[in-house]
Amino acid sequence: MAVLISGAGTNLQALLDTVHRRKGVEIVAVASSTAAAAGLARAERAGVETAAFALADYPARAARDRALADWLSARSVELVVLAGFMELLEPEFVQRFAGRIINVHPALLPAFPGVRAIEQALEYGVKVIGVTVHFVDGGVDTGPIILQECFPLPYPRDIAEITQRVHSVEHRLLPRAVRLIAEGRVRIDERNPRLVHTDEIEDGAD
Ligand code: GAR
Description:
The chain is an alpha/beta fold. It is built from 6 helices and 9 strands; from the N terminus they run βαβαβαβαβαββαββ. It has one domain: Rossmann fold (3-Layer(aba) Sandwich), CATH 3.40.50. It has helices at 10-18, 39-45, 61-74, 91-96, 117-124, 159-182, and strands at residues 2-5, 29-32, 49-52, 80-82, 101-105, 128-135, 145-152, 186-188, 196-198.
């Protein structure tokens, strides 16, 4: 698999620590939308090949996304994991890896897609907050949902504390989704393409 990042790469670290080189899963490539992403160093420390594909280095996003897709294909990547990749991908990229791209989002989709999801949720005044792992389709955070987990919001609402708690949920949920996919336990419902079945125990045990 490959992991795409833009920033700190804490979700990448969770994947490196819990699924990388276990049970047939290998992170063979980490690509970033910017050479400044701190997460690249995490991959390098783990001996994983890295590259940066900054929009500024290409005439248009289509060219950037084609170069990125070619780089991933050359490494025989079977699953592309967006872990804090903060840019949109061209429909052509999504087509090339159709059904094989997943994303982690810090909100209970379809609420609060896009950027600043945690802030959006707090500004809205929600009583529960959570994390979604979903397949990526042509829209912004609109693909079929694989896993979701939520927790009630404490008072007072300390954004730093809540953000940290959301991240800790992400760091469990994203590796769990990758493990389920690797084990062939994730499938789209034949009659409803929005519905993803995950063949695991209902209480969410790993
Ligand atoms: C994560 O919270 C992830 O869910 C979010 O960016 C953060 C990246 O953190 N992604 C999005 O908001 C995508 N819409 P990380 O670089 O430490 O993994």
